């Protein structure tokens, strides 16, 4: 939908606020949250874990009902100020039958995560809530560049999340564009099509990244987004990295380097586009607010937020 009203901005965090960690997709071990917890506590936040945060049922972090209950509980608990996902993986789409999305939006809380969490970002952004595409507990198990932590900390405080030290993107199609930032993980955007919560890129800046997909699958997903009439309606496009894609080439099919595929699929659109912008599953990533307006300068390879994502 075309959003013309102001975004619904959750309050920025301040020392003493409580962040509840939830696991709405795949499971993880408790020790994988240690660094993130320490990082947040050093900033003065209280960190707590949802009841089923460390449950495991094969590829899922417990039952759909329990994961959804944890998510709803975190948003509806007045003592909780932000909801942070511990990891992605798979499983968020299975939660929709058990979620009250309007109640989540009305709670106006900072929601943070990426990867499979893209599914929830799309649904919440379409209802006006600003969220944050950002590293999770599992992401920060391995060391990152200092600007990665700076970006996350700034995003939680409602400040500019683009540190001066962060790299810029590479120009694919020159030009400038403005629009509400939407998107995330490519496969989840494709999965959203045909559902009650589809990605809508019309007049928006569409951010795209993915991980562990074969080159021909990257081609297929970009093609699917084009055939569905999604990508060509964007005002601007920001491509991160297709992490470990080139290493996964299917010997039975072959595969072009993923950057070449992106050029083939996007350059003919003549929409301002940059490549290799630092966000997503790559080694070092920015925290990018979603659901608020930004300006893409494809000539300079930069993204500049024009409005805040927090109240």
Keyphrases for this structure?
311 residues, alpha/beta, Rossmann fold, Glucose Oxidase, domain 1, seven-stranded mixed sheet, six-stranded mixed sheet, 13 strands
Plain-language structure description:
The longest helix has 13 residues, at 64-76. 25% of the residues lie in helices and 21% in strands. The chain is globular and about 50 Å long. α6 (186-192) packs parallel to α7 (215-227) and α7 runs parallel beside α8. The protein has a 7-stranded mixed sheet with strand order 6-10-9-8-7-12-13. A 6-stranded mixed sheet has the order 2-1-3-4-5-11, with helices on both faces. The chain has 311 residues and is α/β, with parallel strands linked by helices. The relative contact order is 0.16. The chain has helices at residues 34-42, 64-76, 101-107, 118-126, 146-156, 186-192, 215-227, 258-266, and strands at residues 18-22, 46-49, 82-85, 110-113, 131-133, 170-173, 176-185, 205-211, 236-243, 273-275, 288-290, 293-297, 302-305. The chain folds into 2 domains: 18-142, Rossmann fold, CATH 3.40.50.10740; 170-305, LD-carboxypeptidase A C-terminal domain-like (Glucose Oxidase, domain 1, 3-Layer(bba) Sandwich).
């Amino acid at each position: 939908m075309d959003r013309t009203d102001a975004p619904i901005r959750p309050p920025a965090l301040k020392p003493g606020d409580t962040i509840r960690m939830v696991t709405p997709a795949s499971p993880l071990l408790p020790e994988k949250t240690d660094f993130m917890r320490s990082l947040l506590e050093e900033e003065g936040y209280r960190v707590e874990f949802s009841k089923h945060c460390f449950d495991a049922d094969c590829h899922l972090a417990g039952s759909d009902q329990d994961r959804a209950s944890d998510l709803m509980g975190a948003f509806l608990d007045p003592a909780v100020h932000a909801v942070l996902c511990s990891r992605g993986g798979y499983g968020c789409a299975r939660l929709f039958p058990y979620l009250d999305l309007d109640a989540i939006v009305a709670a106006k809380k900072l929601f943070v995560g990426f990867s499979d969490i893209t599914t929830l970002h799309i649904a919440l952004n379409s209802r006006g809530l600003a969220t944050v595409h950002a590293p999770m507990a599992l992401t920060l198990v391995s060391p990152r560049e200092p600007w990665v932590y700076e970006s996350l900390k700034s995003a939680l405080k409602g400040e500019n999340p683009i540190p001066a030290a962060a790299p810029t993107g590479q120009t694919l199609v020159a030009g400038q564009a403005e629009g509400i930032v939407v998107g995330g993980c490519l496969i989840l955007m494709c999965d959203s099509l045909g559902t009650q919560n589809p990605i809508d890129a019309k007049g928006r800046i569409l951010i795209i990244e993915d991980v562990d997909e074969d080159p021909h699958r990257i081609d297929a997903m970009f093609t699917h987004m084009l055939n569905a009439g999604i990508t060509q309606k964007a005002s601007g496009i920001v491509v991160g990295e297709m992490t470990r894609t080139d290493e996964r080439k299917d010997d039975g099919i072959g595969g072009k380097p993923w950057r070449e595929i992106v050029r083939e699929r996007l350059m003919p659109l003549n929409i301002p586009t940059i490549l290799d912008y630092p966000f997503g599953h790559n080694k070092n990533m920015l925290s990018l607010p979603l659901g608020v307006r930004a300006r893409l300068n494809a000539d300079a390879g930069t993204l500049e937020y024009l409005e805040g994502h927090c109240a």
